[in-house]
């Protein structure tokens, strides 16, 4: 899953990026409202962490521009402004959740995971497809009850497919959601990683739909 963090404090941005990447996310960052708005308007994100007190363009204006343009990705507002009136302003602009500074890093991770689950129609933290289980909160994967170890990139690929079971996901869509904007999309890394995930969860779980992409579905009964 791919996250955009828009925060003007470099130390906090760096720490958020570290924590979110350790939690299995691909992360892009922006330090002012104009750059953040541009990225959110032109790139694909599963969720955004948005500060309100940004230089060049404030967070509320960034959010309103996205919503007016039909950009529907979940947005978690992160700010030092704790008054209810300011929270209401954020929600009225289209925010999905709100965390007030200071905060626990784990809280941001859990809230983002919940926002992404709900955006794809999942209410429970555990996703299941056939024998495969993915615990979105703990970042754990199992097959037939046995734990499976995945690299960060493998986990992001499986997580995106598990959030969209039964849907054909194109190569472009998958890359947009599992890699940051600096990734070389001309490489064959994605195909290699898909092959590794298949070996770990069962080759029959991820089908290649010729000319269209990849499909995660329950294997047919024996």
From TrEMBL:
SUPFAM superfamilies: CheY-like (SSF52172). Residues 124-218 bind DNA. The keyword DNA-binding applies. The modification 4-aspartylphosphate is found at residue 51. PROSITE patterns: OMPR_PHOB, RESPONSE_REGULATORY. Residues 2-116 form the Response regulatory domain. This is Response regulator transcription factor.
């Amino acid at each position: 899953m791919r996250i955009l963090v828009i925060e003007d404090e470099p130390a906090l941005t760096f720490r958020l990026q570290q924590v979110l990447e350790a939690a299995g996310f691909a992360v892009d960052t922006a330090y002012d409202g104009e750059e953040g708005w541009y990225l959110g308007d032109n790139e694909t994100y599963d969720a955004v962490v948005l500060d309100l007190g940004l230089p060049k363009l404030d967070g509320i204006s960034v959010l309103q521009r996205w919503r007016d343009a039909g950009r529907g990705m979940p947005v978690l507002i992160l700010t030092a402004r704790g008054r209810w009136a300011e929270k209401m302003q954020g929600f009225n602009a289209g925010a999905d959740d709100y965390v007030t500074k200071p905060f626990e890093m784990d809280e941001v991770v859990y809230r983002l995971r919940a926002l992404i689950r709900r955006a794809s129609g999942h209410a429970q933290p555990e996703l299941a497809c056939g024998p495969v289980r993915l615990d979105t909160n703990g970042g754990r994967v199992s097959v037939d009850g046995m734990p499976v170890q995945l690299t960060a990139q493998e986990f992001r690929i499986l997580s995106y497919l598990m959030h969209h079971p039964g849907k054909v996901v194109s190569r472009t869509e998958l890359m947009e959601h599992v890699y940051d904007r600096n990734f070389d999309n001309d490489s064959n890394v994605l195909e290699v990683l898909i092959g590794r995930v298949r070996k770990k969860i069962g080759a029959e779980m991820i089908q290649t739909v010729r000319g269209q992409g990849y499909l995660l579905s329950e294997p047919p009964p024996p």
